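Ligand: NAI. Inputs:
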Amino acid sequence: MHIAVIGAGSWGTALAGMLGQKYNNVILWVRSEALAQELARTRQNSRYLPGYLLPSAVEVTYNLNRAVTGAQVIVIVTPSHSVRQLAAQIGSIVLREPVQPFIVSAAKGFELNTLKRMSEVIQEEIPVSTDKIVALSGPNHAEEVAASQPTATVVASISRKSCEYIQNVFMSPQFRVYTNPDIIGVELGGSLKNIIALGCGVADGLGLGDNAKAALMTRGLAEITRLGTAMGASPHTFAGLSGLGDLIATCTSRHSRNRRAGVLLASGKTKDEILTETSMVVEGIRATSAAFQIAQKLHVEMPITKQIYQALYDEKSPKDAVMELMTRGKTHEIEDVAADNTFSKE
Ligand SMILES: NC(=O)C1=CN([C@@H]2O[C@H](COP(=O)(O)OP(=O)(O)OC[C@H]3O[C@@H](n4cnc5c(N)ncnc54)[C@H](O)[C@@H]3O)[C@@H](O)[C@H]2O)C=CC1
Ligand SMILES: O=C(CO)COP(=O)(O)O
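Predicted complex:
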């Protein structure tokens, strides 16, 4: 089994390492020649996953052609803003292949100018049938996967066969993989929870307490579900690992870059200052802009996303954003109640 892992940030390195314990032909593609050389020599990715040793079965290269040619499975795991360009390069190689590979998308985000999900971007650039495109998402911090701590995830595709194939590829006693036919919901859960994690970081930074964080996560999930269903996802998916599961992990974890960025926002840093001082990707910053625009187009109410958008992009004070959320117009917790008037008594 030849597997190509494209992107050697924290998540790509952890996934390549995990697959390298199971298969002997895993190739990790690294963008920078210097990092490729360091990784090949020391077996450590000191910048993105320090302290973790890549198994010897993982080959490291910065030659994309070498990584991808002949691969049965290609895992794309770079920040969302770079996926189209890389997918186009991969597409031109895959075009020449006699057998179509599976393409696994492990990035969590949107393309900003088109507001598309990663599997849509990949489909446009890589000439494989939609069946062969699978999203992998869940509560999966790279640091814990690299440490072989028990982790569960979801693979989603329109094809049951593809889901089950990729489930088998990744499954191990440390990494439990579930399948889900709702690729829209699985991708949206992973991308939208980053916005709420920014909010939980703000709550942590302002010292707002556990009640506030629980409220943010719960009402955050309500608005994620509202937008997701308007975009064609199943509401049930958001109650699963790639929805609620990833939301809890990211909003509460010391590993989360999005939550940490929220703490910085609460301390008075601007979006640009946060981006300058963070070497790792903070997907939630772009996802907030994408979700805000999609919500406006689809007329979906997303009050938390709106406040985080204003704090990031209009430099609204995080304290004012909290006050505005707390003093919004009164509403029902469950929308059907408002629509159907299901109270048993007036
Ligand atoms: N770190 C984690 O625990 C997890 C991350 N993810 C997702 O995986 C994706 C990648 O995240 P990480 O590995 O954490 O990122 P990272 O911040 O650790 O590293 C980013 C990597 O992408 C490379 N890169 C940046 N711009 C690039 C470009 N234009 N072309 C090619 N490569 C480029 C960098 O050189 C670096 O190797 C993100 O969408 C993230 O949300 C998903 C699950 C877990
Ligand atoms: O998606 C993740 C865990 O599932 C990683 O979250 P952060 O990007 O916030 O670190």
